[in-house]
Every structure is written in C-alpha cells, then in structure tokens.
Design brief:
The complex is a heterodimer of chains A (317) and B (518).
Chain A lengths: L1 H31 L4 H6 L5 H10 L6 H13 L13 H36 L4 H15 L2 H15 L15 H35 L2 H8 L4 H38 L5 H10 L3 H29 L2 H4 L1
Helix pairs in contact in A: 1-12, 5-6, 5-8, 5-10, 5-12, 6-8, 7-8, 7-10, 8-10, 10-11, 10-12, 11-12
Chain B lengths: L1 H26 L15 E6 L17 H7 L4 E3 L6 E3 L2 E8 L2 E6 L13 H13 L12 E8 L2 E6 L6 H4 L10 H7 L13 E7 L3 E6 L13 E6 L3 H9 L5 E5 L1 H9 L3 E16 L9 H10 L2 H8 L5 E2 L23 H10 L6 E8 L2 H15 L3 E8 L1 H10 L5 E5 L6 H9 L15 H7 L6 H17 L3 E14 L2 E2 L15 E2 L2
Parallel strand pairs in B: 1-10, 1-11, 14-15, 14-16
Antiparallel strand pairs in B: 2-3, 4-5, 5-7, 6-7, 8-9, 9-10, 11-17, 12-16, 12-17, 13-17, 18-19
Helix pairs in contact in B: 6-7, 8-10, 9-11, 14-15
The chains are: A mainly alpha (317), B alpha+beta (518).
Chain lengths: 317, 518
C-alpha cells in the first residue's frame, strides 16, 4: 500500500510542471498561427486605428511572455479569465460543457469496453475459424472508418430515417437522464467504433498468446474447465494490457469528440476548443487545455494505481 | 427567357387562384378568417450558425449579431425590411432643421425591461457612449455627430460637424439601439452578456455556441405585440446541421444558410424554403494603390473576363443576382443602369490587357477563403480569368487570416470574399473605397470620389440622394474599383407553421410580428 501511495504522490508532483509545459506549448502554438484576435473583435467595423485600440485594450500588444505570465498567475489563483470574444467566464464555459463531453466519452468507453472485449475474446477462443476472420476483418474496417462519416450515416438512417434518436444537441444528465442518454447514444456509438476495433484486435492477440502459454496447458491438464481457464486465468492475465489500452483510448476519445461534437452540434469542450482555437481566443483554449491535461493525467494515474493493484511489480517501476 | 414566361404564367395562375379564394372567402362566415389571423403564443425554435459576438450593440461586431439584437432592442428609427423605407421606432418622428441639425421626437411611455424609463436622457446617454466609450466598436458610425442635446423629456437635438443626411438610416442600426442606462451603470461591461433594452423580447440566458433564450416582453410599447411567447435559439456552427434541425422537426426556423442547404431542405416534407434578396455582395477587393492593379485597363480586363451568370449559377445555384456593383438592385439607392456595365467579353479583356502592356497575360496574387464552398467559387473565377491570360496565384486562408493578410499586412493584389453591407449606402462606399478604409489596402482615394460621396450626404431629399448615388456608383464601376460577381441570396428554411417571417434586405430578421399557426 505504501508503494502505491508513493506512486500517487510522485505523479501528483509531476502535475504542475506538466500543466505549465503543456499550456506554454499551446500558448506558443497559438502565437505562431497567423491571425489576430483584434481583427475578429473589430469585425465589420474594423479600421487600422480601431484594431490598434483593441490590441491595447485587451493587452494583446504586450510581449508574448508577459501575456503568458499574466495568464499563468491568474490561473494559479484559480481565475481562468474571460473569453476574448464573448467575455464569458472561461470556468463557466468549461463547467457548462464538460459534462456533455464526459458523458459521450464515458458512454463510448463503456460500449467499446463491452463490445470490444467480447469480440476479442470470441476471436481468440476460435482462432482460424470463420468467426475469427469475420471479427478481424470487422476490426480492420473499424480502425479505417472515419468517425465523422459513420456519424453522418447514423444520423441519416437511425435519426432522420427511423426517428429513433434525436439528430442534434445534448440534454443535462442530472435533470433529464433519459433524454441525455438518447442524445448521447449516436455520438457515443460513432466514437466507440474505432475503440472497439482497437480493443478487439489487441485483446485477441494478447489472449491468444496467453492461451498458448505453458501454464494454461498445465491448468488444462489439471482438469480445469475451459470456461474457468479463460475467465479466471486467461482474462486476468491480459487485464493489465487491457487497462493500459483503455487508458490510452480515453485520450483518443477526447480528441475524437472535437469532430463528433461538431457533427451532432453538442455543446461540449471539443467544439469549444475548436471554435476558440480558430478565432485565437487564447484564454478559452488555455483553460480547456488545462482541464484536459488534468483529466488525462488523473486517468493515467488511476490506470497506474489499478495496474499496481493487479500486478504489484508495476508500483516499483 | 422561357423561365420568365413560366414565371409570368405561374403568377397569372396564382392571381386567379387568389381571386377565386378571395371570392369564396366572402361567402364564408367571418369565423373562418380566424385561421389566418395572427395567433398568440408558442415559442419559436430557431437554429443559427453564428454565436453573437456580444449582445451589447456597442461591442458586438458582426451582422449576424442582429439575429438577437432586434429581439432585445428597439432602434430609434425602424425600417420596412423589404424596401428599407424608414418608419418610426423609438423616435416617433425626426426632422433635419438644417443640414447639420437633426431633431428627434421620442415615443412616450416606453420603459426598459428593467423598469427604468426611456427618454431623451437615455438617448443622449447611449449616443454619447457609442461615440466616446473606449470599448465602442461603432465610433465611426457617429463621426459626424458633434453633440447631443436634450431639449425636453421626449425631444433630442443632434448637432453635426458636417452634413450627414444618412444619419436617420444609421440610427436604424447599432448606434440607434437603446440600452438601459441604469443597466449599464449597474453592470458595467457585463451588459455584453446581459442585455437590457425596450424590445419585444427580454433576455433570459445565453450559452456560448449553444443557446440563446428570449421571453416575451409583456409590457411592450407596441400594443398586442409580440405574438410569440419567446424564442429558443440554438447556435450550431455547421450549416448542414443547422438545416437538419428543421427537417428533423427539432427547430422551426434556420437562419443564415447558403444555397447549398436549400437543395437538402427542398427534399424534406413540411418544410418551406424561402429565398430573399440580400445586400451582401460577393466580390474581390482590389489593391489599386500599387501595380499591377493600379492600372485601370487591367482592372477593367478583370471585370470583362468573368462570366457572372455562370458564377451565380454554380456558386449560388442561380439564386443570386449577377452584378458588377456593390449595391443590390433591390436597394433604393442602386442605379440599374450600371449594374451590368461589364458584360462577359473575353476578347475585350485580352485587348485591354495587351493595351496595358501585358500581351502575354499577367499573374495576380490573390487571397481567398479556404472553406469548401469558397474554394469552389474561387476555382470558377480562376478558370474564367485564365482564359484571357490572367493567372491567379491563390493563397487560401481562414476568413480572419485573410482579412489580416490583405487589409492589414497589405499582401496580394486581390481578396475574394463577401462583404457585410452597411446601413446607409454612403457608409458602404466609405468603408470600401474611402482613403482610410480597411477594405482599401492601397489607402488611395481616386480623384473625384470624395466630392461624389459628399454629394450623397448633403440633401435630405431621397430622389436627389438617389441621383447622387447613381453618379457615385457609375464612378466606382467605371473605375473598376472592385470585382463584384453577384449579390448573395438570403436563404431561410422553416416549418410550415411559421407565419409572417420576413428576412429583410439587410439580413437582420425581426421576430416581433412572427406567429405560429396551430
């Protein structure tokens, strides 16, 4: 247990430098992109004089490091600032939108976990059969399919054609859970397909390796039923691989959400960061990056802790 | 031509049907008419692609902000959406005592949504704020205003530093929108997100790039209005998704669409697609302050080399209006005589190029937009120009980067883009061709331009103004100061339940008199 606590402590210590590094890199990248938020802010009424006034008014004429330093100081005080474009508070924006993104990401992860593992196990236990070939083929297709294309096909058939699901938007999970689930189903399925394919392939190959190992042969020789071999020993042995894989897929789900949220018009952090980055609304981009970095690090931490519990050798690494 | 005849026949048939229907209606009991009378109640669900920049008229910035602005705010001067004819707003009348003095008589008994009174002090407060506040984006709209004087609780005199008869028109726009002074004093910059006006709807909530909610103002000063209980607006950035919300029955109206969405909407049942004229020109801004486009013959060659009908057919599905001038034919100030001054004539374009010293053609560095529809439009223009030897070297950028590159960094010789219209045509010309105009990156004003522009501002008589604008229009067209291709159509997709919706010429919809049938 002590080892695990040390692991958590070590990881939390790393959090701050990673946040500073990530937000600094994103801030620099935003500076490198051509374009000037002052031009957006002046809009239809832009004149050279007005653009210069706006730069001064919003501190955009300050040197790059000063602008970043000011942002970082405020962020450390818990103040993420306001959107340059709409003067909405960045924390409000994120608080309103994050649940929508989390819902589709978690929903997609659950679907992918259940379906992906089931397919992988089915293929691994029937290696060389038609079912195996079918699942492997399906998995290759799933990896290759762009999620936005699939999303549009789902909308055209299941929602516009059959009216089973709403076509756009989101609903609050706490006050209207049924509607929230219905709204999130198609986006989650579209997001999950790539992850299902990935999981099915990895679980299949990992499980095949385990099932061919000598100790499994011993277990079989000892008279254990094939069900017990698979569920009690086979899957437990690939659980560490599976967990690591799931952790990595969470990152993929968050980045995939940027596109899926646009297709389904879901007010989530993905669409928020996309519109803000295009308009160089840097306080919003920085705020979202900060929150996403924290989420990703925490998820990795949870994965590491679980790994350590499953396999104590991992805590020492 | 055959299309015109079909149209005529259709119209005649429609007239006959309408006459028959009217005759039949006379025989019916009066209660049957109730179906067509405006019905009160119901919430209109609107989908639109653009998040408002700000809902304070002073700090907002885009034409599409008006999707919500006219709901919350009334302007001092109102206008007929399809003719732009001025009519009383919060000012019940206005009059130029002389060319530099405008007197406004205000409506009585109007209150802001926060209960504070609307009066002459509020008008002065707002106009002074628009003119002087450091955060104001609209100072230039009031550059001709010297001072605002309160004469009585419902009477204001605006003193000008130079004649500007376009001011009443300008007061239909942002600087005419009256914000509660009490709200501004209490909330400061927060009025950006908490608008308080006198308009038909009160502000309820706004989630960026998601939703904007307005509720009926029960104390609205126009009796019986508005008909709707409120507006639930959804902000969805992807245009096809915006249209889809209406075909799927999730919204009643979709705003700010492109012709491409009309094709999809036309296939859906229970959905009405309306095409209105707009004032938005699609053009190429030209840097005529330096070679090669400082040469008139080269600019004219550009104008003769493009086939506007073809561009309109491909890029706007034939719904736009081919034009070589920035003002729409539907605008009162437009002179039809020079709308199609440049007819497609590749031979003439080649000759003009040769005369200008480019017998082997010329390369023109051009900036454009990078999205798919813009690329399609630009490719047609490029291929047409290539036929006369004009080789376009296109740099596609995001709209914001393109503005920066062409107008501020002064890169390229042309910039293919649509242009937002301005309330008064004099502002439109000033903002495109004036010496300090951002859209004129050469910062050159051709001799004669200023006199023609000033002449449009020193007579309040509309016919005299129209004549002055005709001369200005001819000047800008003959000098080929821009490369206009067509005036865009405004596309609205809505459910058949939506009644009395008019997307006016300036593409600034008003929902005050819209109602939903049962």
């Amino acid at each position: 247990m002590g080892k695990i606590l040390r692991l958590v402590g070590r990881r939390l210590w790393q959090l701050l430098p990673i946040i500073v590094f990530a937000t600094f890199v994103v801030f620099s990248l935003l500076q490198l992109v051509p374009g000037d938020p002052a031009v957006v802010l002046a809009g239809d009424y832009a004149s050279e004089q007005r653009i210069a006034e706006i730069r001064q008014l919003y501190g955009l004429d300050q040197p790059f490091l000063v602008q970043y330093g000011v942002w970082l100081l405020h962020a450390l005080e818990g103040n993420l600032g306001r959107s340059l474009l709409t003067s909405e508070s960045v924390s409000q924006l994120i608080l309103y939108r994050l649940p929508n993104t989390l819902l589709i990401a978690v929903y997609a992860l659950v679907i992918a976990g259940l379906v992906g593992v089931a397919l992988g196990v089915a293929a691994a236990t029937r290696v060389g059969t038609r079912l195996d070939a079918f699942i492997t083929g399906l998995a290759s297709l799933g990896v290759a399919l762009p999620s936005f294309w699939l999303a549009m096909i789902l909308v055209a058939t299941l929602s516009l054609g059959l009216h089973w699901f709403p076509t756009t938007g989101a609903a609050p999970l706490l006050t209207d859970p049924w509607s929230a689930i219905m709204h999130a189903t198609l986006p989650a399925v579209a997001l999950a397909v790539g992850v299902i394919a990935e999981l099915a392939r990895q679980v299949r190959s990992a499980l095949i390796e385990v099932l061919n190992s000598q100790y499994i042969r011993t277990l079989r020789a000892k008279g254990l039923s094939s069900g017990a071999v698979l569920w009690k020993h086979g899957l437990r042995n690939i659980s560490v691989t599976l967990l690591t894989l799931l952790g990595l897929q969470v990152n993929r789900l968050f980045s995939g959400a940027v596109v899926i949220e646009a297709v389904f018009a879901i007010p989530g952090v993905g669409s928020l960061v996309a519109t803000s980055a295009l308009n160089k609304d840097f306080p919003v981009v920085q705020g979202v990056v900060l929150v996403l970095v924290v989420i990703v690090i925490l998820i990795n931490l949870v994965v590491d802790v679980l790994n350590a519990l499953l396999d104590p050798r991992a805590a020492e690494a | 031509m055959s299309n015109d005849i079909d149209q005529l026949r259709l119209d005649r048939r429609r007239v006959m049907q309408a006459t028959a229907a009217a005759a039949g209606a006379l025989l019916l009991p009066a209660t049957s008419f109730a179906e067509d009378a405006p019905r009160k109640g119901g919430t209109l669900r609107v989908a639109m692609p653009y998040n408002p920049g700000s809902v304070d008229p002073m700090t907002g910035r885009n034409l599409t902000d008006f999707n919500v602005l006219y709901g919350v705010f009334d302007a001092l001067v109102d206008f007929e959406p399809l003719t732009l004819e001025l009519k009383p707003g919060l000012a019940k009348s206005w009059k130029f005592e002389d060319l530099k003095t405008l007197v406004l008589e205000l409506q009585d008994g109007v209150t802001f949504h926060d209960g504070s009174p609307f009066n002459a002090d509020a008008v002065k407060f707002n106009l002074d704020r628009y003119k002087n506040d450091p955060r104001s984006n609209v100072k230039s709209d009031l550059s001709s205003v010297e001072s605002v004087e309160v004469n009585a609780p419902n009477r204001v005199t605006i003193h000008l530093n130079k004649p500007n008869v376009g001011l009443p028109v300008i007061l239909t726009n942002r600087v005419g929108l009256m914000v509660s002074p009490k709200a501004i004093q209490e909330k400061g910059p927060n009025v950006d997100r908490n608008p308080v006006g006198t308009g038909p709807f009160k502000f309820v909530s706004w989630q960026d790039n998601d939703s904007f909610v307005l509720a009926r103002n029960d104390n609205y000063w126009k009796p019986g209005l508005p008909y709707l209980d409120g507006l639930n607006m959804r902000i969805i950035s992807e245009l096809n998704t915006v249209a889809r919300t209406v075909t799927a029955g999730e919204c009643d109206v979709a705003l700010n669409l492109q012709p491409q969405q009309k094709i999809v909407a036309d296939r859906a049942s229970g959905v009405v697609t309306k095409v209105f004229p707009s004032l938005v020109p699609y053009l190429a801004f030209i840097n005529y302050g330096r070679p090669p486009l400082d040469n008139l013959q080269v600019r004219q060659a550009l104008n003769y080399a493009i086939n506007r009908d073809e561009i309109n057919k491909v890029a706007a599905l034939g719904l736009g209006q081919p034009s070589d001038t920035i003002l729409s034919k539907a605008h009162w100030a437009c002179d039809p005589a020079t709308v199609n001054y440049y007819t497609y004539d590749p031979a003439k374009a080649k000759k003009l190029l040769a005369d200008a010293g480019h017998p082997d053609g010329i390369e023109i560095e051009t900036i454009g937009w990078a999205d798919q529809t813009a690329m399609q439009r630009q490719e047609i223009i490029i291929s047409q120009l290539a036929k006369v030897g004009i080789r376009v070297k296109l740099t596609p950028l995001s709209p914001q980067q393109a503005v920066q590159a062409f107008m501020i960094d002064k890169k390229g010789a042309m910039f293919i883009s649509p242009s937002s219209p301005f309330a008064d045509p004099s502002q439109f010309y000033e903002n495109l061709f004036g010496k300090d105009a951002l859209r004129n990156p050469g910062r050159v004003e051709l001799p004669g331009f200023r006199e023609l522009l000033d002449a449009t501002m020193d007579t309040p008589d509309q016919n005299a103004r129209k004549a002055a604008f005709a001369k200005l229009q001819r000047f800008t067209v003959e000098n080929a100061l821009s490369l206009v291709q067509f005036i865009a159509p405004a596309i609205g997709v809505m459910s058949a339940k939506v009644q009395n919706y008019k997307d006016g010429l300036p593409a600034t919809p008003k929902f005050t008199e819209v109602w939903l049938s049962a």
